[in-house]
Amino acid sequence: MARPATGQTKVIDRMIPGVGRLKKVTGTHDPQINDAIPVMIDQLVSRQQLQPLRDVSAGKVTLLQLYDRWKEGDGKPLSMADEVLPALSTLRDWIAIYDKVNPKTRESYDNVANQLGKFATKNTTVADFPDLLKTYKKNCQKQKTARSFNIARNVLRSFLKNTMGKNSALYHAIEDIEPLNETVKRKPVILSPAELRALTDKLPAKIGQMVWTLATTGMEVNTYFLNRFEVLADRVLVHGEKQAHKDNRRDRIVPLVLDDLARPTVQLKAFRRAIRKVHKTVTVYDMRRCFAHWLYEAGINEVRIEQYGGWQAKEMARKYAKGAIDKYIVEDAEKIRAYVEASKAIEVNPHFAEFFETVMP
Questions:
Q1: Could you report the per-residue pLDDT of 137-177, keeping only the tens digit for each?
Q2: Rounded distance, CA 48 to CA 33, Å?
Q3: Helices 286-297 and 302-309 sit at what angle, rounded to 10 degrees?
């Protein structure tokens, strides 16, 4: 192909992840082609089609020859040669440079590569991704981790769509693998004080005290385990998280219902594990739901419930409550305390009692 001899040939000198240093001349004096070749390289890198660039770096083809192939394909993926590349390293290279995800999502993608790596061998190539995903699917079905499989499937779909296109056979092979049905989210559990007493009687004493502290203060889990609260004479001061785009953080006060509030003495993971061992459907966050329900049952004003829990209230309600809390906080504490103590004496409902009698030792 004849090239117009206008301008000078251009040197491409770039470091490319997965390729290394690519230092080659374009091999043409045509300024339009000299400008188009860096665009081609950027496109190949973004699609993680690194094999053609490796061929250029190794001297198997020239940049100009690669450009002719790229131009003839109208900028579409050049070939299926990348199917023979190592599966996991190629996927990780793509994750590292894929610019359409935020850092948290990229971390999730990395986790997918790690999980798939448990079922891959050193000989597993990109072409083996469908079989690898099927193997992973069987494992997820056995482990009942449907969401993990669905995330992995979506990551591979994105990878193949970005590098080989939606019309590639590999993309369709992944697409044909059906996603797993994810478990429906459980309904929130709200325990009465009597039910909570039955729960905590089965827990170690220190963990039981921590449960009662959460249920009678409504503290968020992270706030509690970071020790972001102070016990004062007649109230609990809870230090809130800093609000986005604001210089202040929203602290709140809560009636002091129990005199023996417990500081966290175990890590959150161990705390969750202890509760799950006793009752599989109760979570740590359910304690905050109990708090809201108990305040309502105790007859606390709705606006003050919102303030005690740190829930978003309407502007006028917030202004009203700001002056009212100090006036009512001792009275509210007595109401809540009376409700809790009275409810503790009530027999646990048959379904809840039956759980402990038949399931727990």
A1: 999 999 889 999 999 999 999 988 887 777 778 888 999 99
A2: 22
A3: 150
